[in-house]
């Protein structure tokens, strides 16, 4: 399964602190050896200020109580620099910690800056010091401190590049604190800035968009509204363009989001189109599943891929979150994915076959006959399939208006909400009645 692990593709687009949760996850899943992961962690930490953490990892990696001299020196250096930055930022921080003074500030940035300068002798140097101090706090792993200072810095900052990097820092801090509501707000704010800012080059803007999409995965797969938002963002032309230019692996997340989102069935056609365009640049069991089903109509292979999809999801940091249910551990997103993917198989199967034997289908789905029939009735309703159930024969008969099977397939991939459905006969009515439907 390590072949489908995207960590090494995603990490270059993340702030280094954001990579830690991914490494922690990999460590739990045992996809790589513990030593490999610990070494990767130390390497990441070397460029941050989290020296104590690096020391702890060093001790457990080499089974020793000693730490290298370099780490001890680095610790002293970090502590010294922290003191220096704190002093430089102190005038502004003291001001900001005094509610009575802060109340004097208004919404107009220029007049605030003037007031700060005239009444409190706080000028550009002190404001710059606040940024440096916030950044340093972040590097030390104090994300809440960093988030507060970066927020305040942005209210005073007049340099658009600086303001942009403060916003990136704030978003990272909120993600690392798992404040998903605030993180979503910051993500949207950042998107607005990236879309409207005058970048020095189109390449910079493209790269900023690519970064944004990577960071958004943390938010979208944790926030309850994320499933719609990810589809909206990734399908926007400029963002889709960024995916197709330098981040093909993001197709995995777009594909998953579309498959599990029943209200976004109409995005399926666009998704399949992109997956086909990119079939030589990116493939994984999830994109292959869609290809088998909607391009090649190869049901056997689609079923095989489905099995691999489950494993890929379990081993993906963004998708594989576990939940405890009594004494069971489940992966909710995997289960949801599999349920929806099976529906896709069924619906597509129905569109191709004129007549489906319910008994045969029940066996394939591992259900008893009555359950299978009830399941199919619901599917036909929900997917608005043009189908009838003949309960005497035990068959599902697909709509008769179609001229040719292949035209129908083309038609149905164009427009997945198919015509009206026709349901007939007593069994269906009875099944419906027990479930309280109005037919
Ligand atoms: C984090 O930063 C805040 C604000 O400066 C500070 O009050 C807090 O003590 C810091 N926490 C740690 C663990 O350094
Ligand atoms: C954007 O920047 C370019 C130069 O970097 C400048 O020529 C142009 O006028 C700017 N556009 C706006 C809307 O500020
Ligand atoms: C985002 O754009 C800024 C210019 O405003 C640039 O300095 C920075 O490198 C860009 N970020 C990335 C990740 O390319």
TrEMBL record:
SUPFAM superfamilies per record: Winged helix' DNA-binding domain
Ranges of residues in domain PCI: 219-403
Superkingdom, taxonomy of origin: Eukaryota
Cellular compartments annotated: Cytoplasm
GO biological process, one term: formation of cytoplasmic translation initiation complex
Swiss-Prot/TrEMBL keywords: Cytoplasm, Initiation factor, Protein biosynthesis
MF (Gene Ontology): translation initiation factor activity
Pfam families the UniProt entry points to: eIF3_N (PF09440), EIF3E_C (PF21357), PCI (PF01399)
GO annotations of cellular component type: eukaryotic 43S preinitiation complex; eukaryotic 48S preinitiation complex; eukaryotic translation initiation factor 3 complex, eIF3e
Keyword Protein biosynthesis set for record: yes
Record CDD domains: eIF3E (cd21378)
Protein family per UniProt: Belongs to the eIF-3 subunit E family.
Role this protein plays: Component of the eukaryotic translation initiation factor 3 (eIF-3) complex, which is involved in protein synthesis of a specialized repertoire of mRNAs and, together with other initiation factors, stimulates binding of mRNA and methionyl-tRNAi to the 40S ribosome. The eIF-3 complex specifically targets and initiates translation of a subset of mRNAs involved in cell proliferation.
Subunit text: Component of the eukaryotic translation initiation factor 3 (eIF-3) complex.
Protein name: Eukaryotic translation initiation factor 3 subunit E
